[in-house]
Write a structure and sequence with these properties.
197 residues, mainly beta, ten-stranded mixed sheet, 0% helix
Length: 197
């Protein structure tokens, strides 16, 4: 599970239309193209599917720039891609903000093997590792990998390869060699224990 409280700024690339949920509730759906910076200084574009309870359909035309506050869910997809679904809580038309995604991440997943405590330029050790969240789409499972850093050298007993964790922190999204790079600066880190009845 990757759920992010974000502000997203981009350009409408699929005009808005009114749709209905399975229980008959109406909502406005549209597509958003968002530029993600790369390490080379240019950008790659991702597509986000947006759903809003209250939005002016006529204003959400292709090519219009919008900023959206809401909840972004990121799920794995075939060919190392991702699905982005944004539940909009507030829309701003023609913002001056740069295109991109900023906010905070809530993550639940599994730690990889690369747990290290390097030293920064000031001689302070910090914790760094990667973890993945897996989603089932049809009969297949797909993962999204996130890089984590916490500016403390402490390693709790549960921090080990294949351990299940829950983490919260500041989200950063960039791109390297055509692949998206998700990064989280940890503010909370706990062991995930599935509740049993």
């Amino acid at each position: 599970m990757i759920k992010c409280t974000v502000k997203v700024c981009g350009i409408v690339n699929r005009a808005a239309s009114v749709k209905q949920t399975a229980d008959g509730k109406s909502f406005v759906a549209f597509g958003l193209s968002v530029a993600i910076p790369t390490t080379k200084g240019d950008a790659v574009h991702i597509n986000i599917s947006v759903a809003a309870d209250n939005a002016d359909v006529a204003s959400l035309v292709e090519g219009r720039r919008v900023a959206i506050d809401g909840i972004l869910k990121i799920k794995g997809a075939p060919e190392k891609r991702q699905y982005f679904n944004l539940s909009a809580e507030r829309l701003e038309f023609d913002p001056v903000a740069e295109s991109g995604i900023a906010g905070n991440m809530e993550f639940r997943g599994t730690i990889c093997k690369d747990i290290v405590t390097p030293t920064d330029k000031k001689g302070n050790k910090y914790l760094r590792f990667s973890a993945y969240s897996t989603d089932k789409i049809g009969d297949e499972f797909y993962s999204v990998f996130v890089r984590f850093v916490r500016f403390s050298a402490a390693i709790e007993p549960f921090i080990e390869p294949k351990a299940k964790i829950e983490a919260k922190g500041e989200l950063r999204v960039s791109s390297f060699n055509g692949n998206l790079d998700f990064f989280c600066k940890i503010t909370e880190l706990t062991e995930y224990k599935k509740l049993t009845l």
